[in-house]
Amino acid sequence: MSRHGRNRVLRRAAFKSGLWGERLACAFLTFKGYHILVHRFRCPVGEIDLIAQRGKTIVFVEVKYRASEAIALESLRPRQRQRIIKAAKYWLSRRRGIGGFDHRFDLVVMDSRFRLRHIQNAFCETELHDTTV
Asked: pTM above 0.85?
């Protein structure tokens, strides 16, 4: 198999394991009392793995599945956080009736042993330098 073919197989496997990790994170958050509003939200300015609600809080969740929790935590780069924040602003700007809701950015990390950790307020909106959508 050529190098290009191997890379394609590896990317496909990573994509499938990422989807599986997102589904597991959905179940995990649902068990914790969150209502999943959107799975895999995509828009022109970015994407968000999960959008959930708990009480009067909208939670934008990034899911990271890596060999270890430490690697998963390191894999969320500033540029990706900025794209998630922009996508969240885009999503919020198109929703009516959630004006009184708070929102935050959480992270769910999963390691190769399928241990999940939910980190609330993993990053904040002030990390976004360009506030345009």
From this structure: no
